[in-house]
Amino acid sequence: MMWDWETWSSALYSLIMMSCFSSCQKLIPEVFDYVARPFRRLINYFNQTMEIRFHEYPDGVRFRRNKAYADIEAYLSSKCTAQATLLKAELIKKSRSIVYTVDAGEQITDSLNGVKVRWESWSIAPKTKCISKYPAPANKYYSITFPMKHKNYVLDQYLKHVVQQGKAIRSKNRQRRLFTNIPSENWWDYTSNLWSHVVFDHPATFETVAIDPKTKEEIMAELQRFTAGKDYYAKIGKAWKRGYLLYGPPGTGKSSLIAAIANFMGYDVYDIELTAVNDNTELRALLTDISSKSVVVIEDIDCSLDLTGQRSKQAKKDEDDDLVEEKKDKEKDDEDNKSKVTLSGLLNFIDGLWSSSGGERIIIFTTNHKEKLDPALIRRGRMDRHIELSYCKFEAFKILTKNYLDIDSHDLFDRIGQLLDEVNMTPADVVEHLMPKTPDGDAQTSLESLIQALEIAKEAQKLAAVKEEEKKQGTKEAERKKELKKRSPAPKKTSIKSG
Q1: How, if at all, do strands 361-367 and 294-298 pair?
Q2: Calpha distance 124→105 (Å, rounded)
Q3: How far is residue 29's CA from residue 9's CA, in Å, rounded to a whole number?
């Protein structure tokens, strides 16, 4: 079989570049690119080929990963097993399947409608002589090479085909993740990762969370409208986001509801630890690195920073001067260790100009004390819906018994319903009694344990109410005696004269 000049030059090009890659990158990575470029230009001059590079992080900015790079990576994963000799493998879908991708230095040929192209995977070591605890990451990119005569077809049709197919493959193989922000002292340069992550595999769903059924249906309907509302949000001129404030006592299921929302939407979760963010600039950097289709969570926001009514705080006039000075000294000592994220910075993070840097996001705050938060932080438009998660009532109890005991009714349900109306018990405490304590534990035993706990709690609440009433009566009596003392005339002084 006779080879044409294009085939010979392509083979020669591959031989030279692969030889350069295997030797220069391992032995002298700092001159690798300089060795490769002259040969590339020389061969391309005679071969009349065109090359396009898709860098993982364009211009080295790691705050925004190139979506085209991710789509190409997914597309080539469907082609690589038949051609490449060096692959990368990753477990996905709860470790039930393996996805293969092209490792650095490998090449794959592809064709569409008779047009042949060559893909190559590159990983260039950073050109630095500095010794660092945190070495700079490699510059990764995919390059596509094709004859110049097919330029229009490749740009207009083939690459669109690759991107579309890659998106479909990514959606099929998508492994959702739970992210948390890395402390900013570890952001050693602008190419650092700002987030660490684990696989998000929380089992909570709307079927399992114990909240009011009507509220549950309303939330699900809102989320469905939200995910289909891209054009609507663009029409009204608002960023494509929605905010929820979850408030209530500890143990009422706020975290479980967040997981249920993420599972219902199929979104990643970004759990932000505000105390690890130094200032508003770092908060904006985190925001720009959050992907679309995500749930952004700040739990216990009243405890994260001093954001509780900052605009209305005033120094007490009657505060002792010594205590004031002592407080100032302590604040000065701790100043270097405290986050300088302000209420204004957090408001801009939620719905300021920077909030439009990504779309299809759900922002959720949780708190145990809603009344402590600044009204500007939780107003409608920022936290669009406020959801109170309170103590366990009978409807929520029935959901829990279905989940934990697999029963829909029982003779003891009426008694438990009466007690739940009289006693404040969180769903977390109810669950503790519903869970079988022994391998052969049955529903009867669990429900009796719950009734006993509710009756004890009822007596404790009665005793606490009596003590509170006695305390109030004692306070009133003390105030009455104090008032009477003020009103009674002072005794007259008498003098004794000597005879």
Answers
A1: parallel
A2: 10
A3: 25
310: confidence class by pLDDT, cuts 50, 70, 90: very low
Cα 43 to chain center, whole Å?
Answer: 48
How far apart are alpha carbons 124 and 431 in whole angstroms? Answer: 54
Give the phi and the psi of residue 40 in degrees, each rounded to 5.
-60, -45
* Matching residue, tokens 């669009």: 384
Spatial contact of 48 and 148, defined as CB atoms under 8 Å apart: yes
For 27-74, how does the pLDDT look when each residue is reduced to its tens digit (9 = 90+)? 555 555 555 666 666 665 666 788 899 988 776 555 567 888 888 888
pLDDT at 40: 62
Round to whole Å and give the CA distance between 137 and 182: 17
Count Cβ atoms below 10 Å from residue 167 Cβ, excluding itself.
Answer: 15
Instruction: Name the more confident of 131 and 421.
Output: 421
> Which whole-number Å values give the CA distances from 328 to 102, 278, 315, 338, in the listed order?
58, 20, 12, 14
Digit-coded pLDDT (tens) for 162-198: 999 988 888 777 788 999 998 877 665 545 578 888 8
∠ CA 53-56-57, rounded to 5°:
105
- CA geometry: angle 492, 494, 496, nearest 5 deg: 175
Q: Where are the alpha helices (H) located in 110-228, listed in sequence order?
A: 151-153, 159-173, 213-227
pLDDT of residue 364: 95
- Asked if 360 contacts 230 with a C-beta cutoff of 8 angstroms, the reply is yes
